[in-house]
Every structure is written in C-alpha cells, then in structure tokens.
Amino acid sequence: MGEEAYYIDKISDYIEKTVLAEEEKGFNQMVLYGRDVTIEDIVGNAKRFPMMAERQVVIVKEAQDLARTIDKLSSYAENPQPTTVLVICYKYKKVDKRKAVYKTIKKNGVVFESKKLYDNQVPDWIRRVLSAKGYSIAPKASQMLVEFLGTDLSKINNELEKLQIVLPKDTQITPEHIEENIGISKDYNNFELRKAIGARNDAQAFKIVNYFADNPKDNPMVVTVSLLFNFFSQLLQLHGMTDKSPRSVASALRVNPYFVNEYLTAARNFPMRKVSGIVGALREFDVRSKGVGSNAVPQGDLLKELLVRILA
C-alpha cells in the first residue's frame, strides 16, 4: 500500500511471474481487479485449494477501489488459507493502521508501505536503478528527468527503459542523450534557468524565459515558480548556516554535492534580504499564475515580469 505505485507494481509483477511454475499457473493463479470484485469474491477464491501444486496465487490489483469494504477482509486475515498467496495491491493511499484489517494482515502476513520519494531523493534513485542495469548518469541529466517528469517513478522508469534500448551498456547517460531521446531541452529547462539566475547571467536567463513563453505547454509557469521557490528557500537556509563547507551545504540542503557550487555562487549574488524579497515575490506570482488578480495576463508575460523582479 502507499502513494508510490511503482514498487507495488514491481512486487506484484514479481510474485505473478515467479511463485508458480508456468505449468501450474493455469489452474492456480488468478488476477482480480478491485473494481470488478467484492471482498466475498476475493475470500472465496483465497479459500480454494491448489490443484496439482503446493500453493495457489491470488493477486488483487487496484484494491483501493474496495476502500469502503476492505475491513471485511479481517476475518479471513485472522485465519488465512496456508496454501494461498494472497496479494492485495492498495495503490495511492493507505489502509488505516488503527483498523483491525491492517493489524490482522500485519500479524499473519506482510505489509509493505510504498512511500513517495522527495524531489531530492529521486536523482539518487535514478542512479541506483541505472547502476543495477550497467549504466551511469551525469548529475545534470538526472536532474533534467526529475524536473521534467516529477517524482512519478513509473514514468521515469519508462523513460530510462527507452534509453537502455538505444544505448549500449556501460554508457554514461548525458544531457545530450536526454535531449535526443526524450525530448527535454538540455539548454532551455528550469535547471538551466535556476543556474543562470543564480550566476546573475541575465542574458541567458531571459533567453530561457523567452523560450518558455514561446512553448508554454512544455514549460508551465506553475512548475517554474515552484522550483524557483524551492531554490530561493534553500538559499535562505544557506544564508543562516555557519558552516558553509561543501559537505555541510550538500547535507543541510539535501542536494547533490555536484550542485553545491551553484548554491554558493547564488548566495554570494543574492544577499539574505534580497532572497527574502524574492521569496515574497514568488508567492505573489504563484497566485497570479493561477488567475488571481492577473487580469488575464499571458503566463509568458508574467514570467518575464517575475524575472525582472528577481534580477532587479
């Protein structure tokens, strides 16, 4: 159960493929979907005996569709059929841990909670997944994926699998590979905008923002404002630190050490008072980008106005 569906799917797929031999699956493996069955249907199937095999497997996918009646499973969980492997895939939400159904399943089975990763944890997850497959990835390339795809591990994994099809093993995946195969611009993205603003490279920052204004569907303002807000909030935290060694900064801000110099440069270019004002401006423009008090100003124009405020 949990918000991150990726691991729930991985575990259930592994059980579906490996617990039974191929010749046993026909009679002893069943995949059900929460929207199509009742708890009584699930229990009825789980209580069956296996045919010509040691065990049977019953997998219930999209079990969150049974949220209103899931409590009825507790009586079966109190005395489960020992020859049945029953897998309940409860995605995007959690069963209340105070309820009997959770306690009995935890007592007589296994509960795995799949938690959503934070933005700063995803690049390391990408690195580990690729390393297991014989690939490596440049820090900037992984950052591009996170900024473009967010923290949805299934989406990211799909794109990584595409890269593995076209690139040989032992390849280091670069921003160029991301641009060529996934379609994310290596020069015009939120990562490069943040870098240009931090370095006070006004010309480059305006070039990127103009690109965003011309391609609003691929570069929604709400995402840009959110990422800049996080960046300047981290700069506020950095200004309050006494130990500004690269290791301490990376640990405190939860950023890859590769990017620490960008933060230190930005902190030199934006004093604490200025950063505080920018954080306030980002809050204002976040509201305006959602249509409050903006008088139907195009988002590209709003973004240009915001950049002028930041660099003033």
Brief account:
With 312 residues, this protein is mainly α.
Structural class from helices and strands? mainly alpha
C-alpha end-to-end distance:
48 Å
Q: Biggest sheet, strands in spatial order? A: 1-2-3
Structural Rg: 25 Å
Q: Helix and strand succession? A: HHEHEHEHHEHHEHHHHHHHH
Low-confidence stretches: none
Overall shape: it is elongated
Q: Hey, roughly how much beta strand do the residues contain?
A: 5-15%
Total strands: the figure is 5
Count of helical regions: 16
Tell me roughly what share of residues is in helical segments: 55-70%
Main sheet characteristics: 3 strands, parallel
Average pLDDT works out at 93
What is this structure's SSE topology?
Elements (H helix, E strand, L loop, with lengths): L4 H14 L3 H7 E5 L5 H8 L9 E6 L12 H5 L5 E5 L11 H9 L13 H11 L3 E2 L1 H11 L3 H14 L5 E2 L1 H8 L7 H9 L3 H13 L6 H19 L6 H8 L6 H10 L2 H18 L9 H13 L1
Parallel strand pairs: 1-2, 2-3, 4-5
Quickly list its features:
single chain, 312 residues, mainly alpha, 3-stranded parallel sheet, two-stranded parallel sheet, 5 strands, 6% strand, elongated
Protein architecture, described:
With 312 residues, the chain is mostly helical. The chain has 16 helices and 5 strands. Strand 2, helix 4 (74-78) and strand 3 form a beta-alpha-beta unit. Helix 6 (122-132) crosses helix 7 (139-149), helix 12 packs antiparallel against helix 15 (272-289) and helix 15 (272-289) runs antiparallel to helix 16. The protein is elongated and about 75 Å long.
